[in-house]
Amino acid sequence: MSTAILEALRELQGLDQEIRAIAARITDFDPLLAEVEDPALRLEEEVTAARRRLEQMEDDARRAHRSEQEKLIRLEKLEDRLGQVTNLREEAAARAEVDMLRRSLEIEGRDRLQLADQLDRSRAHLATLEAQASAARAQVEPDQEKLLADREELRARKRALEGSRATLLERVSGPALRVYQSFHQAGRAVVVAGITVDGACGSCFNVVPLQLQNEVRRGSDTLVRCEACGVLLAGILEEAEG
Ligand SMILES: [Zn+2]
Description:
The protein has helices spanning 2-27, 29-82, 88-169, 174-185, 210-218; strands at residues 192-195, 232-237. With 242 residues, the protein is mostly helical.
């Protein structure tokens, strides 16, 4: 019975090693995907920044327009008042204000033209960037899709292995399973090892005491663990490494 469990654990160990290797290969895709997408991402960031600057300028333009409208209304009122002044002092005051408003409108008019020119150039720049960004995006897509497909294939293989693992786990229970789980959680790849021809543990190669060797070879019901490294010892001949 113990032998069957150890065999199942050996199989489990093989699956877990394969699952770990695939998981590492899946993780390797992250930097590759980032690298492939990088040129498109950079341009998209530039587009976002340019769009934000343009919005800011459009706000400024709207504000300037409102201020101009207000000044034009005030100017109109003042001009009306000029027609109704009753003495020279009032007239002089109203004229001074009209002059001031006209000068201010003149300056703002020049600023507005300058801003309109900047807005045109910013819009053109944004359009160029957007075109470059979508071209870059279209260019990275095939490479990206290839990488994603390759990664998906690995993920599917990993899921299949995990399915086999779950089925296998149903065949194992008791202390053997507990030893296995604790090794597995600690990230140790070898849990079950055989004994070499000269009586050493197949994992750490320390000599196993004769009495334990005999127990293992007899296929005893109790689990035998290597005194040096703790792996479960199975009554199989461990092939020499390499
Ligand atoms: Zn050992």
